[in-house]
Design goal:
The chain is an alpha+beta fold. The protein has 2 domains: 136 residues, N-terminal domain of MutM-like DNA repair proteins, CATH 3.20.190; 125 residues, Helicase, Ruva Protein, domain 3 (Orthogonal Bundle). 24% of the residues lie in helices and 22% in strands. It is built from 6 helices and 10 strands. The strands form 3 sheets. Strands 1-6-7-5 form a 4-stranded antiparallel beta sheet, covered by helices on one side. A 4-stranded antiparallel beta sheet has the order 2-3-4-8, with helices on one face. A two-stranded antiparallel sheet has the order 9-10. Strand 2 and strand 3 form a beta hairpin. The longest helix is centred in the last third of the chain and has 20 residues. The structure holds zinc ion.
């Protein structure tokens, strides 16, 4: 599932192209929003695009917002005169609209925004801007890296946890934005075994892990996110972090820390990649 770097990359693209544009009309394909709510979107002009954990919020100037969680396969694809020369990935997007397009936003200045979702797990809600923070998903979100995740909080949630440390990193209620890819890579960089109980980590290890979480997320952002299933940025292009994974999907290959072999196991039902030689 797209994580902080992927959703942030989408956010940056949407911010660049949507802010200042007005929604002229909205067409739904299938039931993703009650059609009665479209009147809150039409005529609204985008004033901001925000991200909370893995969720996105598009604020309009009419006191309404569109809140979205793209889940596994949601895609936003912007097309306008200023992006005429940019073609969305043939493999990941193809032509838009497609049979996977769920919403078409017609914008002013000859622009369109498409929302695609192959697996239909994404959710989209129209809410009053004031009430976005009350949506259960946003309300339950833990503090996040680069924003309000302080070391003291991080240390407390890790040390309190009797479960595997990797599960703590991925628990959105404890830490917002980190999922499977970046949790695996952060643990490798910190040389911590993902199966260890959080409560068994010492101060130094927790400090290191706090640092490596930020480091791998920073790399993810730098490469425009990781394309695993069909993640694309707001122009329909794939990310590049998958070419720089430290452990994720690299079972049988060499560990960059020590030359050992990356192993794959399942931990709490999720594919877990680590090096037994250097992750203790
Ligand atoms: Zn290693």
């Amino acid at each position: 599932m797209p994580e902080l770097p992927e959703v942030e990359t989408i956010r940056q693209g949407l911010e660049k192209y949507l802010v200042g544009k007005k929604i002229i009309g909205v067409k739904l394909k299938g039931f993703i929003l009650p059609p009665s709510q479209l009147s809150h979107l039409e005529g609204g002009r985008t004033v901001a695009v925000k991200r909370f954990g893995k969720g996105l919020v598009i604020d309009l100037n009419n006191k309404y917002s569109l809140a979205i969680h793209i889940k596994l396969t949601g895609q936003f694809i912007y097309k306008g005169p200023e992006t005429e020369n940019i073609t969305p990935s043939k493999k990941l997007v193809g032509l838009v609209p497609s049979k996977f397009t769920r919403i078409i936003f017609k914008l002013d200045k000859n622009a369109f925004l498409y929302f695609n979702d192959v697996r239909k797990f994404a959710w989209v809600k129209v809410v009053k801007t004031d009430e976005v923070k009350n949506l259960p998903f946003f309300k339950g979100l833990g503090p996040e890296p680069f924003r309000d995740l302080r070391f003291e909080h991080f240390k407390r949630v890790v040390q309190k946890s009797k479960g595997a440390v990797k599960a703590v990193l991925m628990d959105q209620k404890k830490i917002g934005g980190v999922g499977n890819i970046y949790a695996n890579d952060a643990l490798n960089l910190a040389r911590v075994d993902p199966r260890r109980k959080g409560s068994g980590l010492d101060n130094k290890e927790i400090e290191k892990l706090y640092e490596t979480i930020h480091e791998v997320l920073k790399r993810g952002l730098k490469y425009g996110g990781a394309t695993e299933l069909n993640y694309v940025n707001a122009l329909g292009q794939s990310g590049k972090y998958q070419e720089h994974f430290l452990t994720y999907g690299r079972q049988g290959q060499k560990c960059y820390n020590c030359g050992g072999t990356i192993k794959k196991i399942f931990l709490a039902g999720r594919g877990t990649y680590f090096c037994e030689d250097c992750q203790k």
